[in-house]
Amino acid sequence: MATLPVDELFELEASALEATDAAGELESLAEVEREYLGKKGSIRRQMRRLGQLDQSDRPAFGKAVNDVATRVEARLTERRASLKAAEREAALEAPNFDPTLPGITVGQGALHPLTLIDWRLDEIFRSMGFYVLDYPEVDSEYFNFEGLNIPADHPARDMQDTFWLTNGQLLRTHTSAGQVRTMREFAPPFKAIFPGRVFRYESTDASHDHTFHQVEGIYIDREVSVAHLISSMKTLLSEVFGREVKVRLRPGYFPFVEPGFELDISCLVCGGDGCSVCKQSGWVELLPCGLIHPNVLRAGGLDPDEWQGWAFGLGMSRLVMMRYQIEDIRHLLGGDVRFWSQFTGTGLE
Ligand code: DAH
Description:
2 domains; two-stranded antiparallel sheet; 11 helices
């Protein structure tokens, strides 16, 4: 048997093993693998020499090539594992983050001041036995005007410039639009408030916006009194502000009440000295109210000889402004996060 031409093969093995050990990264290791064991790699190429050998030497030489390939393969696998482990180790040790840096703060949401006050009012009125109701913002001319004793040609319609819809409906100009609905819905005696958004087609300034919030209140019983109305309003205000606030009562005209009143509070933004919110008067119109007009009771299906009622229309946006000393009503719905982020309440504290 002729000597097998294995010198070159073993040299290849030695250099393949050396190159494997020398590969410092997975990438160069892959390169080594390609170079020696790839389809056109130098070890595989040794197989081509089979044809030049004696028939009898072929199996032994073929086996020798395969054995070399297996050993190189094994060494490559070993090396790959240790390079991977080293890579992981390095990744863990690398100073790729600084544990002394402050963490990312997760911002906590807060409630809008209008929501805070709305919830507080709900609570106060519920404790006094009022229902808390919700009525549509798009309403009919009847509930917003007609049923409230404001017929089509009545000058009071001009007091509240209206957004009319093309279908003849309107965006309610006041929460009073719910009054007649309530009377038709509940059997007297009852007490209810209905907070919500209202809309006016008018230009805006520090104390006027086209969209704002009111809370309507209504109390129907066989006998009601102005004294009870006023004392309820004072209780409400002292509950909201957590202290006595200075108020004044003036006669006020609204077609749906008789007599009607304006309950003003001393401006809490300027402390009564005069500012843009109180139009330099030191007083803010906050709580118009009165005894419900017989025509309105009738529209609600109630006999005015049998039932009486009082009602109020609290300017919730103004109340919020007073409570938090906000000098411009347009901040409330302006959508500026810098404004909102000053309020941290969640209503749960
Ligand atoms: N709805 C009236 C307005 O927005 C306010 C008002 C006045 C409501 C007197 C009432 C009331 O319930 O009795 O101007």
